[in-house]
Amino acid sequence: MTDQTQKFACPLCGSGSYEKIKVFDNGVIVGKCTECNLFYTPLRDSKPEALFNENNYEIMRFLYLPVLNNQVRHFRYKIFRKYLSIIKKYSNGKSLLDVGCAHGFFTKMAQDNGFVVSGIEPSLNMHRFAVTELGLDVKFGIFDNVDLNSAKFDVITFTDSFEYFPEALPTLVKIEKDHLSDSGIVFIKVPNGNYFNFRHSLKAKLKIGSGDAEAFSPSKRVAHYTAETLKKIIEKSGLELLTVKHIAPIDSPVWTKYTGLWLEFESPFCLAWKQKLVRRIVHFVGQFEYFFTRKNHFSQSVYVVAKRKAK
């Protein structure tokens, strides 16, 4: 254990018993709970919310200028549209809270599609960007420390943020109790823990890598959910499960290879087309596997939609 890590029990069931899966260079351990099967970090980074704290605002703004000027689209544009289509399928409401909204591009798209939006973001410079550059109503801080008063929302979203919550279950309980409207829904999209575990096993046992970032990274993640464990946390929170599915992979930016800069806007399909095609095929294999076994080791991400139970 280092000054940057702390030891914790399973955030889903409270058990301290786990099978060690991986150890990061900074001492963070990824384990699998022997009681509920959640992949989580029993030895974790002490400040998971500080993932983007070192980002420089001026550099951030410069790199996003083509997106801000509507010259190009954010590389997550298509997946953001998919999130909204899922949300609209299950909710007719218009008030939306985006928890861990990062720069605010999904929040802004929701606003442009008729939602009355609010956001929460713990990165100071990302918060500043969302407020200053996109004109959004975003509160600075983590969910537990932000004062929402008695505000209730028709939709509360976690898009690639829920996996950083140390107190994920109490957060959902609080949301269900205090901040969902009577017909409100929660949309959570996270990386698929089974996919990461499969990738890690291939590299550890067969020395086969995928060419992507290190499995289970970044190490600040608190938990690595699967369809199974997402269902469990929804049930324990008191929410009613509406659906849980795996979602198509995001085409990550490829500009770094050509420019040396991390540019987060769409690239033509012809750039890294083999990688993009393989990801789609692998996702299809995962969908096929899930249909027959209820396990998916190939799709990169999974989402769940839940609602308040009828009183």
Explain how this protein is built.
With 311 residues, the protein is an alpha/beta fold. It has one domain: Rossmann fold. Helix content is 34%, strand content 23%. The strands form two sheets. Strands 7-6-5-8-9-12-11 form a seven-stranded mixed β-sheet, sandwiched between helices. Strands 1, 2, 3, 4 and 10 form a five-stranded antiparallel β-sheet that branches. α2 packs across α3 (105-112). The longest helix is centred in the last third of the chain and has 21 residues, at 273-293.
Short précis:
This protein has helices spanning 57-68, 77-90, 105-112, 124-132, 168-179, 193-206, 227-237, 255-259, 273-293; strands at residues 5-7, 18-23, 29-33, 39-45, 95-99, 116-121, 138-140, 153-159, 180-191, 223-224, 240-247, 301-307. It is α/β, with parallel strands linked by helices and 311 residues long.
Strand content: 15-25%
Biggest sheet, open or closed, and with what strands and sense?
7 strands, mixed
CATH architecture: 3-Layer(aba) Sandwich
Distance between the termini: 46 Å
Q: From the helix content, strand content and strand pairing, which structural class follows?
A: alpha/beta
Strand order of the largest sheet: 7-6-5-8-9-12-11
Q: CATH homologous superfamily name?
A: Vaccinia Virus protein VP39
SS elements, strand count:
12
> Mean pLDDT score, rounded?
92
